[in-house]
Amino acid sequence: MTENAAVAEAEALVSEAAGNDAGASAEGPKFTLELNQDQKDIREWVHGFAENVVRPAAEEWDEREETPWPVIQEAAKIGLYSFEALGQFWSDETGLTLPIANEELFWGDAGIGMAIMGTSLAVAAIFGQGTPEQMGEWIPQCFGSADDPKVAAFCASEPDAGSDVSAIRTTAKYDEATDEWVINGQKAWATNGGIADVHVVIASVDRELRSRGHAAFVIPPGTKGCEQGAKVKKHGLRASHTADVHLDDCRIPGACLLGGKEKLDERLARVREGKRSKSQAAMQTFEASRPTVGAQALGIARAAYEYALEYAKEREQFGRAIVENQAIAFTLADMKLEIDAARLLVWRAAWMGRTGQKFENAEGSMSKLKAGEVAVWATERAIQILGGNGYTREYPVERMHRDAKIYTIFEGTSEIQRLVISRAISGVHVQ
Ligand SMILES: Cc1cc2nc3c(=O)[nH]c(=O)nc-3n(C[C@H](O)[C@H](O)[C@H](O)COP(=O)(O)OP(=O)(O)OC[C@H]3O[C@@H](n4cnc5c(N)ncnc54)[C@H](O)[C@@H]3O)c2cc1C
User: Is the N or the C terminus of the chain less surrounded, counting Cβ atoms within 10 Å?
Assistant: First the structure.
């Protein structure tokens, strides 16, 4: 080693010991998984609501298969169901507060959690695509007031357009004479469909352009021609209302096109000229929203794990607690391991989305895929640990298992997530 090299190495060692290495800033190391006080306070606040209000109501609303309006009202009263709360969760610069709040709420119960959070799908569309005026007008109406809360619906899927959103048949035609859009079509499986005040609808303005000819519209409360179709009877998430929505010659003001007509015309002209569309931008938006959905699945998985752990310590067979058997204890160890691994993926993707990192490997899809599959697996294992009791409606884990299953289906099925990830990592248009 030359003298200069030795000096440089010594300096580096001293600098590292003093905490001045490349990975540390003046305020301390950059990377931390320690939550700050705001994040802890919000987690505790949402957890308290989930434990004291949501959990005790879970079984009743699952059996009733109805929207739990009294619980939504309670959430509105304490400010948890409001744009302000959603804005506060979202504004955390690390991106972690939104998944943390979702995990806690869905730990309480997923059906009621979705009844409370379903509105945020429509809000996200208005927030992502609307002008500032449209945000100011429609977002408050999605929530209503603390005394009279409302819900909102986001309607993209159709009977023949689920995974393949480009197959949407609902049309939007512009009527120049009246400056109105006329919407016709049928939407399927819309969370809060028909009971919402505000519906955000994806419709085609030029079917030849497939998904690049789509636009998002707000259907204002009470619009003629916007009706609820069949209400869906579901396997799980039964406290959350899901229904078809019929749109028959539904006339809405020109200003209800999210983003405005000028922007749409410019975009369509670009696409017709064969220029690149902004589908890449849309993909980045999906990637950013997926960890929130993953966090909901995590909440269910964690609830089932905690219940199974306590049960295994109490339940005795062969003269000892069943947790003393490796078969049970190792299953619980694997459940904890998988849940924590999924949470790390969710937090990574949430952080990437909020800090504007590029999703090179579809990290958002990875987080939703992993969390959804862990939730299905962990809730099934929880039933196994509870044995016969696990299979009955006297114990909550069978409900958690039914609720968990939707997380491998909606917001992009597991197969579609794998498609997105495989395309991202290979650069090949995998079919
Ligand atoms: C409870 C619930 C709530 C919902 N809420 C909403 C909502 O609020 N708004 C909304 O717009 N939609 C909503 N949906 C619809 C949901 O997003 C769709 O069900 C989902 O996208 C899947 O579409 P699909 O059901 O038509 O399945 P399909 O697309 O018909 O898929 C069927 C199967 O084929 C697989 N498959 C399809 N294409 C491929 C492929 N290329 N490669 C490999 N496998 C493939 C799928 O993964 C799946 O396993 C909701 C659905 C449910 C059940």
Answer: C
CA 371 to chain centre: 11
Helix (H, G, I), strand (E, B) or coil at 188: strand
Quote the CA–CA distance of 413 and 158 in Å, as a whole number: 15
For residue 278, the model assigns a pLDDT of 61
From the list 409, 301, 429, 422, the residue with the least C-alpha distance to 366 is: 422
Of 372, 360, 361, the C-alpha closest to 291 is 372
366-381 pLDDT, tens digit per residue, is: 999 999 999 999 999 9
Tell me how far apart the alpha carbons of residues 242 and 227 are, in angstroms, rounded to a whole number: 13
- What are the DSSP E strand ranges found in 266-317? 316-317
Distance 262 CA to ligand 1 centre (A): 32
The Cα 171–Cα 181 span in angstroms is 10
131's tokens:
């002008």
Q: Which ligand 1 atom is the nearest neighbour of the CA of 193? A: 8
pLDDT tens readout for residues 267-297? 999 999 887 666 555 666 678 789 999 999 9
Residue-wise pLDDT tens digits, 236-278: 999 999 999 999 999 999 999 999 999 999 999 999 988 766 6
d(CA 346, CA 368): 7
Give the number of other CB atoms < 10 A from CB of residue 246.
18
Whole-model pTM: value is 0.93
Q: Report yes or no: 301 and 371 within 8 Å, Cβ to Cβ.
A: yes
Digit-coded pLDDT (tens) for 15-64? 444 444 444 456 667 889 999 999 999 999 999 999 999 999 999 999 99
Question: Of these residues, 34, 394, 411, 415, which one is catalytic?
Answer: 411
For residue 74, the one-letter residue type is: E
- The Cα–Cα gap between 218 and 313 comes to 52
For 344, 377, 402, the CA distances from 380, given in Å and listed in that order, are 22, 5, 9
Distance in Å, CA 165 to ligand 1 centroid: 9
DSSP 356: T
- Do residues 126 and 218 make contact, with C-beta atoms less than 8 angstroms apart? yes
Residue nearest to atom 32 of ligand 1 (CA): 163
At residue 189, the pLDDT reads 97
Taking CA atoms only, the protein residue closest to ligand 1 atom 41 is: 431
In angstroms, rounded to a whole number, what is the distance separating the alpha carbons of residues 116 and 155?
Answer: 17
* Rounded CA separation 342/354 (Å): 18
Closest residue CA from atom 30 of ligand 1:
162
Buried b (16+ CB within 10 A) or exposed e, 330-344: ebbeebbebbeebbe
What CA–CA distance (Å, rounded) separates 110 from 98? 16
- The SS3 of residue 18 is coil
